[in-house]
Amino acid sequence: MKRVLILMGLFVFTLSEMLFAYDKELAKRFNMMFSQMTPEVIAKKPCMVNAKQLLEMIKNKEPFVILDVRSPEEMAIVGITWKDRFDIPMHEVFKEENLNKLPKDKKIVVICHTGPRSIAVTLALRALGFMNAYAFDGGVAELAKEVGRAAYMFVH
């Protein structure tokens, strides 16, 4: 009977460790990122680039790359032809060979269709140390709406 109780105790202890365990190092990294996100900082939309800012970056010839995380099907319908871009679907971004393609020396503007995927990818990239990653606010839909027929003013 003692053995059964000891085994049950070990089982419960092991199970509780598994249930309440978490990656402490990753938690520290998230804490470093999110502890700075006060309401005042969040109001300024850190880690985000909007259409007007992107157009200014183009106009000023600021070095940056676009990381398009939409699916190949989405890209086939509406494609971004910016010269410095990577078309890597969200589910493939974090493969080692794709992470190795991303620059460390210029901004990475992450874009999707409307924004949520770019925010998720940007947060994860920043957690990995890509502090040069920025989510594009509103996605391709917002960019098309903002640029409209005036695109020629920014790319020539």
UniProtKB/TrEMBL annotation:
It comes from the Bacteria. Residues 60-152 form the Rhodanese domain. Coiled coil: none annotated. This is Rhodanese domain-containing protein. It comes from Caldimicrobium thiodismutans.
